[in-house]
Design goal:
about 40% helix; elongated
Length: about 250
């Protein structure tokens, strides 16, 4: 059989370009099938891939139909990305959002020197050292510290989560007529903080609970004055939704 002759410009004559086009389409089809086989099965993705093939076979541009994520094998559709993308492709959890919101609030209100934000397994805690709120061996809230609690009320009333107020001391014993031990001192401090939120700031009492742990939940060894100061604290814990469901 005689071979087809090439034209003077070196190109193919007649319908010979169809063979090249068919080979290209076949390779593209194989490529898409391979990518799809490595991705998780999803009805929406399947429909979109079918549409991509259809557009390609009809000669339409398909360069904006889909976007491939080569890190995890998924084939996300353009415009269907998560509303809360973060580094690594993960979504922010409710607790992480809460942590970020409280941290930003503390920064905006210049409370970073007096309030430490703790990411607790039960939720997010706003931690205040005892000397910020109370005099030594006292459970009465200092007048110059009430403004701090008033500002923190804005965070508390912006959500419906339960609030746990927890009092802590160092391991130095106390024995007075009002406070026979650190149990009473830590509990009374927690109760007074709750009463301020409820009775002064008008918060819903049903959301609050107060607990005194004495010296039995330290965050540092009671071996230096600095570490003892860390242990004397009040934690205002905003319980996460996951904790509520337990």
């Amino acid at each position: 059989m005689a071979r087809n002759k090439k034209n003077k410009g070196g190109g193919l004559k007649g319908d010979e370009w169809l063979a090249t086009y068919a080979d290209t389409v076949t390779l593209l089809l194989t490529f898409f099938v391979l990518l799809y086989s490595m991705s998780s099965v999803d009805a929406q993705k399947t429909k979109s891939i079918a549409g991509a093939f259809n557009s390609l076979m009809n000669g339409q541009s398909g360069d904006s139909i889909m976007e491939f994520n080569m890190y995890n094998g998924e084939v996300p559709l353009i415009g269907g990305e998560s509303d809360n993308p973060v580094q690594g492709g993960e979504e922010l959890t409710e607790q992480k959002k809460l942590y970020n919101n409280i941290k930003e609030f503390v920064k905006e209100n210049n409370l970073e020197d007096v309030v430490e934000i703790i990411d607790d397994e039960r939720g997010v805690a706003m931690q205040l050292r005892d000397n910020i709120l109370f005099e030594t061996s006292s459970s009465d809230i200092r007048e110059d510290s009430k403004a701090i609690l008033s500002k923190l009320t804005s965070v508390i009333q912006s959500m419906n989560n339960p609030v746990l107020v927890e009092g802590h001391t160092d391991n130095r014993a106390i024995n007075t007529s009002k406070f026979p031990s650190n149990w009473e001192l830590s509990a009374d401090r927690a109760v007074n903080v709750v009463r301020y939120f409820v009775e002064v700031m008008g918060q819903d009492a049903k959301r609050f609970s107060a607990t005194g742990y004495g010296e039995f939940k330290p965050v540092a060894p009671n071996d230096t004055y600095e570490n003892m100061a860390k242990n004397r604290r009040v934690d205002i814990l905003i319980v996460t939704a996951d904790e509520e469901g337990n």
